[in-house]
Every structure is written in structure tokens, then in C-alpha cells.
Amino acid sequence: MSSVSPIQIPSRLPLLLTHEGVLLPGSTMRTSVDSARNLQLVRSRLLKGTSLQSTILGVIPNTPDPASDAQDLPPLHRIGTAALAVQVVGSNWPKPHYTLLITGLCRFQIVQVLKEKPYPIAEVEQLDRLEEFPNTCKMREELGELSEQFYKYAVQLVEMLDMSVPAVAKLRRLLDSLPREALPDILTSIIRTSNKEKLQILDAVSLEERFKMTIPLLVRQIEGLKLLQKTRKPKQDDDKRVIAIRPIRRITHIPGTLEDEDEDEDNDDIVMLEKKIRTSSMPEQAHKVCVKEIKRLKKMPQSMPEYALTRNYLELMVELPWNKSTTDRLDIRAARILLDNDHYAMEKLKKRVLEYLAVRQLKNNLKGPILCFVGPPGVGKTSVGRSVAKTLGREFHRIALGGVCDQSDIRGHRRTYVGSMPGRIINGLKTVGVNNPVFLLDEVDKLGKSLQGDPAAALLEVLDPEQNHNFTDHYLNVAFDLSQVLFIATANTTATIPAALLDRMEIIQVPGYTQEEKIEIAHRHLIPKQLEQHGLTPQQIQIPQVTTLDIITRYTREAGVRSLDRKLGAICRAVAVKVAEVQPKEAKLERSDVAEREVCREHILEDEKPESISDTADLALPPEMPILIDFHALKDILGPPMYEMEVSQRLSQPGVAIGLAWTPLGGEIMFVEASRMDGEGQLTLTGQLGDVMKESAHLAISWLRSNAKKYQLTNAFGSFDLLDNTDIHLHFPAGAVTKDGPSAGVTIVTCLASLFSGRLVRSDVAMTGEITLRGLVLPVGGIKDKVLAAHRAGLKQVIIPRRNEKDLEGVPGNVRQDLSFVTASCLDEQPEGAHPHPHRSALFHTAGTTKDIFNTNMK
């Protein structure tokens, strides 16, 4: 029989320098290529080469990192492994690199480096025999007892593993089919060994030496497995299940390592998770889903991305409060006291909360109401929600909806997406840990809309009492009962809330505060809070109610109390500076010599000079405490007043009237100015007016033109055609603010009538109301906020549409006493109790008197 010639590798090989591990003949390894030399080698040989020989590389283990790209070639290890490049994968992120899958063929020795750039090429000498059909019997005879001993340890190691695992069974078959001389290299690459030990095996050119060095490694592995089996015998069945899902490269590593401990902890966590699922009180449908998912989790390798996702899902399902709730405090008397202590005024809101408590006493399973507090900023909408939760004895959770434009924020992401998570509703329930908290949906009027969906539409299911008992979050994919949750939404206006969402909520208006209410709030809540925050006491600072009124009227102009709170904070900071300056002087005085002060006191008494005593007291004692804040102190601390009463100055000539406007920030007074000039009969409107307000101006001028003769209104030329050779300019000051709405119609008519009659409008009268072309005065909204704005401005009389008279019931009693109200349903009707006048209408009279809105003196 003719002998088979061995396979020869090329005598010249390109060298691939690796630092990630040691490649042994017969093993496979993935290595990253990112250095300049290695990148050039891959591009030139592997990507452009076409022959089989171009895919054979010389792999040299390199201790220094080749990514450093040093100019000189680093020292090369003497022995390397000829390898076949099986796969090349490239990527440009985060920087250009390749990943190679290489299989070791045989050892070689570097004879001479022929070229260093662009990549090293060396002349090599093959050290191992490569035969296509090796003579196994002959090799066994040559190795003798050493080979049998190695084979015995290898079989013992493999049989200690679970033979039901396909990878382990395959390894067992390989021990019989592979040539014995290949086994040391293959097993060394499989078991847990260090790179230093692998390098020693690579340098062992002699086969006998290689066997001798590998046998201790196998023995060490076997002893580790025996020790593990002794310590983990009660869990033997669980261990086999875990081993069954490990890849072959992890089956044979040394037991007892940190990696094993992590897996044990994970298994314990899964057992605990399964126990929590069994003992949880979740509904039957949710329990079935959890049981199904835990079974999938047990069969799933931990390296799979879905493993972490499924585990997180199960942990969330266990943590949700399916049947856990708090017991409501149903003492109505105590609840009323608590609400009154936390918030001043807000009677309508407190009444609604007490009604809920009363019905809750009569019926235990009452569904939670869905309230919406609508009012300007700073009136306490958010804080009253927290007080409601404290009154009921429930957990409180706030969800800020301002700027939210993705419906997944409400209903969660589906678990098919990477990084999926539950929505804010389910996440809030997990945070509070009960299924009947108070949820505050803050700024519900500022929800956005985008390509990711409409969150306002997603809230329809949440805020519908007939549907939210079966709310389904996309992440959970099972129903959750929200019927016991008390939802409270807050908004500045209902104009931007979709009609369908608005229909599901009970609207409770929270108007602005009157001056008297602000004074009470300041002295009950704001001033004590600011004193505590700044470390002051009432013995150090006093703010009288007169000073508080000055701050409210001259330094703030708002519906709420936020600006007032900031001004009080500025006062406390200024006083804190004074107090801090005094304290070092007091400390220095206490440390001074007592004897010297006694001598000084005796000297003063002997001379009998009271003025000297006074002078000494001025020098030694701190300023008088408490520091009283008056108007002069306000001027020093806050500066000159920001708002002065300029109403009478603005109405010092005809063609100016005061209107009332509603904004999301509360009511405001609004001046309307008119001027006429020679022209072609044009009407000019300025002040950033909307279309509705422009139409109101055209309606006003049309009504006045049609009734000019009746009310003796003429232009500058004495003509009853008001636009004959006359241009009219209407301006609404604060031109940077956009204005719109129909409620300025009455004000525009009064302003133009003042202009053409030459009479001044009374400076203490404000008005609001929509007009028609026939002179009817129609009702408008926001009456309470508008009346409060007139009261804040110091006005005495307000004209409103007659059909808005019912809205005055919501105005505080002290405000109604300070103001007089005139109601009108038509521009040209005569008010009840007024004396007839041939050229005056109801608009130009006050109720029950013959005094008109215009002053009798002509300008």
C-alpha cells in the first residue's frame, strides 16, 4: 500500500496579529480586525483573492494591542497557527472593522519576516502533519499508554455532563472518531483555560509533551465538576435542565466560577417569580398569560434578547396591584375641616368632594368620578388634587400631560418593539402600589398630536366610566380595572380639549381669587411657608394686611397667587440679609469682656448722661425686631410699583371705553380707543385682532350709522353719515397680544358713540357683551372672571348682558356689594326705573337713574 503524502501549507503566509485569544489547531475562533495592518491584510488577501491559498493566514498571538498602530512591527511570537478564513463580516460603526471566523489547521514556525508593510508576510515552516486520511492505529501504537490515559480522562469528563444534550452527545462521538493527536488541541480550546495555558499548549510541538501538559487541565476540570455535584446534589435535576440549554463552549468550563453563580441566581429568581405568580391575586385571564410566559422563560436561553423582555413583563405583572387597595376615610366632618385648613375659598370644589364622600358611605363600590378643574394658573388646581387624596386617605400620583404627543405614553408600547414599556397609567399604578389612588392628569388641555397618534383619543378609554373597568394597555395585553381610580384632570381652558374627551369629564370651574381672598391666603398659607423656607420667625418680620393689599394691587395683577408668593419670597430674602448681618455683631458682643462693659456702665451711671446710654444702645443692640414691612420698605425691596391705577387718565378724552376680556390666565380689563380724521370713509382696525373681533367692529359702526339721527351722532362736518369724508381708526392697546372673541361688541359701540357725541365715558364703568346688527345684546362667557378683573382694577360699575344675570350668583358676595351691575338685552331699550330721554338708550343709562355712562361735561 502506498503511503499518503501529508498536506502542505504555503511556505509564505500573511500574518494576522490577534490579541483576543489563542487559536489552536482544530478549533474555531472569531476575532475582530481593526488595526491598520490587519485591515489591509483582509482587504488585499481575503476580499480580493480568488484562490483557496489566499484564504489561508498565519495567526500569531500578540500580547500588545495591535490597534495602537505603531510604526514598527511588534515582536512576534515564534510559533503560530495556520488558519482558514471561513467567514468575513464588515461594519463601519463605530469605526471600520471586520470580524473573521477562522479555523486552525496546523502549527508553523516563523523562519524569516519577508515584508512588514502594508501587512507582514513571513517565510514559515510547517510543524504539524496534516493528513486527509490519518493512520489512527499507527498513532495509537506510537503514543501508547499516554494516549489511553488522556482518552480515559476525556471520556470521564464528557460523561459527567448531561448526555441528553445534543452538543454533549456529539462531543462524545468526536472522541472516538477524531485522531488522538488532535484531541489535546480541541479539548484545550473547549475547557476553561487561560490564554497563558493555551499559549503553552501551542508551543508544545512534541505530541508527547502536548499530552502531558493537557492531562492536568482535564483532571482539574473533572475535580471541579465533582465538587459542584457534591454541593448542588439537591438541585441536580434543575442543573441538568440548565446545562441542557448551554452551548458547547460553556458546557465544559470550570464549575464554581462567577458565571455559574450568576446563572444559579437567575434560576433562583425564576423559581421565586413562579411562586409569586402562583400566590398572586391577579384575574384568571392574567394568571393564564403569566403561566404561559413563565413556561416559555424556562425553555429560553438567557442570551436571547426576548429572555430579558419576558422576565421584565412577568415582574411587572406580579408587582401590579390587581386587588390591593386602601380604605377610604369617610368622616365628612373631618374631611371638611381638612379641606378648609388646606385651601381657602373654592367652595364649589369642596362641596363636590364632600358629595362623593357622602355617596361613598352609602355605596361601597361606587365608581370613581372623573373631575376636571378648569381655571387660570396659580389658583391651586394641582395642590387641591393632592389635598383630595389626603382627605380620602388615598395614594396620590401626578401625570404631567403637557406636550405629550404620543399615544403610547398613555397606552404603552407593544412588546414586539425594542425598548417597549407600559404606559403612564399602568406605570403609575405600579408606583403607588394600590388600585384606587387619586390620579392627577395635569395640563390635559396641552396634549399634542403627532404621527405617533393622538394621546387625547387614547384617554377616551381611560376617562370613560363605562369602559375603564376593562382598560387594556398595549404592553400588558390583558385587561386592568381602573374603575376605582379617582381621576382629576386640570386645564387652563376647555377650548383646546377635544369635545369627545370633554364630554367624559365633570367640569368644575376654579376662578381667580378676589383681593380679600388673596389677603387671607397670603396670611394663612403663603407667609408662614415663606418664613419657614427662609429660616425666619414672626418675631423677626411682620407683614400687615395693608402691605399685603399693596403688593396685590400694585405689584401683581393675576388671577392666582404665584406672583404674590414670589414677591413675599423677595421680601423674606431681604429681611434675611438684615438678620444675618446682625447675628455676627451679637456674637461678638457676647464674647467681649464682661468687666469692660461693667466699667463702661458704671462710668455712664456716675456721669448721669441718659443720652450716652441711648447712643451706646444704638451701637451695641441689633435693629428693632420685628422688622415691619410698610409701603416704604416695599419700595426699597420690590422697587417702584408695577401697576398704577391709570383708568381715569386713559379716559380723559372722548373715544375711549373700558371692556372686559377673558383669557386662560383669568379676566382682564381692556381699553378700546377710537379716533376720526378726514378721509374716504375707511375703517382701520389695529391691535392684533381676530376675525370675530373685526366683525364686531363692523357691526358696531353699521348699527351706529343706522341710528345716528336717532341719537344725534354726527361726524366732524355735522353729517349724520358718520363715514362721509371721515376715516375711523379703532385700536386695542397691548398690540403684541392676540385678541379675538365677540364680547367686545358693546364696548366698541360705546367707544364710537363717545367719539361722535364728544362725551367722555365714565372712568369707573366696564362693559362686556356681544351685539347683533339689530342691536340685540347677546350673552357671553367668563362673567365671573371678568367681574373679578373689574373689581381688581377698582371699577365701580359693570354692564353685562341680561341673560348673563344668572352668572352673577357665582361672584363672591363682597365683590357684588362693591360693584353695581347694569343688565341690557338691547342697545336701544330704556332700562327699568330710568326717566325717558329722547336721545339716550339703555346702553347710555345706569339702572334706575337718569345719569348716563357719558359725563355731562363736553371735552
From TrEMBL:
It comes from the Eukaryota. One of its GO terms (molecular function) is serine-type endopeptidase activity. PROSITE patterns: LON_N, LON_PROTEOLYTIC, LON_SER. The active site is at 743, 786. The keyword Protease applies. Coiled coil: none annotated. Keywords: Acetylation, ATP-binding, Hydrolase, Nucleotide-binding, Peroxisome, Protease, Serine protease. SMART domains: AAA (SM00382), LON (SM00464). CDD domains: RecA-like_Lon (cd19500). InterPro entries: AAA+_ATPase, ATPase_AAA_core, Lon_bac/euk-typ, Lon_lid, Lon_proteolytic, Lon_Prtase, Lon_prtase_N, Lon_prtase_N_sf. Residues 13-222 form the Lon N-terminal domain. ATP-dependent serine protease that mediates the selective degradation of misfolded and unassembled polypeptides in the peroxisomal matrix. Necessary for type 2 peroxisome targeting signal (PTS2)-containing protein processing and facilitates peroxisome matrix protein import. May indirectly regulate peroxisomal fatty acid beta-oxidation through degradation of the self-processed forms of TYSND1. This is Lon protease homolog 2, peroxisomal. It comes from Callithrix jacchus.
